[in-house]
Fold:
Amino acid sequence: MIGTKSRPVESSAPMKLARAFMRSQHVTEDGAPGVWWWGGSFWVWYGDLWQHRTVRDMEDEVWRWGEDVWYASGDGMVRRWNPTRTKVEDVVRALAAVTRAPWKEMPTGAPEGWDPLRCVAFRDVVVNVESGEEVERTGRWVSSGVCPMRKGEGGTREWERTVREWSQGEEAWERLLQEWMGYCLMGYRRKARWMLMYGKVRSGKGTISKLMGHLCGGEPWYATSSLTALAGRFGLDGLQHAKVLAIDEAQELDREVGHQTGAILKMMLGEDPMVVEAKWEKGVRNVVVNPAIMMSANEMPNIPNRGKGISSKMLVLEFRRSHLGKEDEGLLERLKEEAGGIAEWALEGAKRVLREGWTKTQAQEELEAEFRRSGDPVACFVEDRLVENERSFLPSSVLERSWEEWARKNKVKVYPRSLSREVANSMGGGVRLVRRGKERVRGLVGVGLRRNPLD
Structure:
């Protein structure tokens, strides 16, 4: 072992010590490097899984390793290294330089001709989703997330029974859940979709979220947050490594936070580079944060949706049956015992998404429209009730009566602070807010009511 008194490190230079630390502590079973610096963090091989480690984690490891490390000094003597804070920090900085990964994205290390983003890794094998081929998984497959179970382990008997109960027999519902879970297990995000699990309390939404976390291998591959936290300054911290982001119980948002949250979600879905800030650390620029976003809600979330940028990318699973007061408290643990089989079941959904796209459920269009009304009711009102007409003048009192009727029919509870102004902003172009006549009647120029409302 390198670093002993009989086999000392060749010098006390940080780079020499960093290489000695890596060779003695972190090498894969086939002799490949067991440490990589990528994405602002260390990735370390521990037996059969790559695990995320912070700079502080690695400093702790170097402290423990360095306690009994010996090196050859220039005078021909062998001396104990005796770690100090400065020495340890220098070695860890050198370790980052020595192990800086040559690739731009994870996972990496797939066989030639395979797209690593369209693969799913299990504890024992890596599966090519498109072809169904599989190879043994070794340390050369460096991945941000591995299903921590063997493929097919545990079967799916309990899972299939539970899914039938949740779906109430709707085959399209079951297919979409299978596709979504398979999509989450891949690293491929070009389908640019997010999932809303919407419906009654205690209906299975939380069980699916927790099970998905187990299939992904837990943190940091599976992250949880809230809509308000996403809009905060440090809301993206930790999400740059996540394959799945679960937002449980989406709450009502005020106007400003809602617009900030909506902008963040659009950038995630569009794979746009962002700045990730963490407390006490310098922000990292040009980071693509693109986990598969799954949101749970008992009531429709009011996320602003201007231009349908979020609703057009939404998938919806409706949960119609509540088990409140009749919860099966052992269900999640029984499903975890089938995790390997459930993940294999999900692979069929992933393959179908890549080949055919997403299955459409019976409630998709209706719930998508409800989401649009909740997040941007003025735009939906404009689409349903108004039409541009450059010669028309629409008094605000008439506009407000039309709004009240539309809101009742569509169960919209909010009332805009200034309906006329918001309609003008939504329609743009030649629509203006003015006052006319001797009575100075307030209203909009350039817009009229539809003769046949769309709703």
Notes: The chain has a mean pLDDT of 92. The first helix runs from residue 14 to 25.
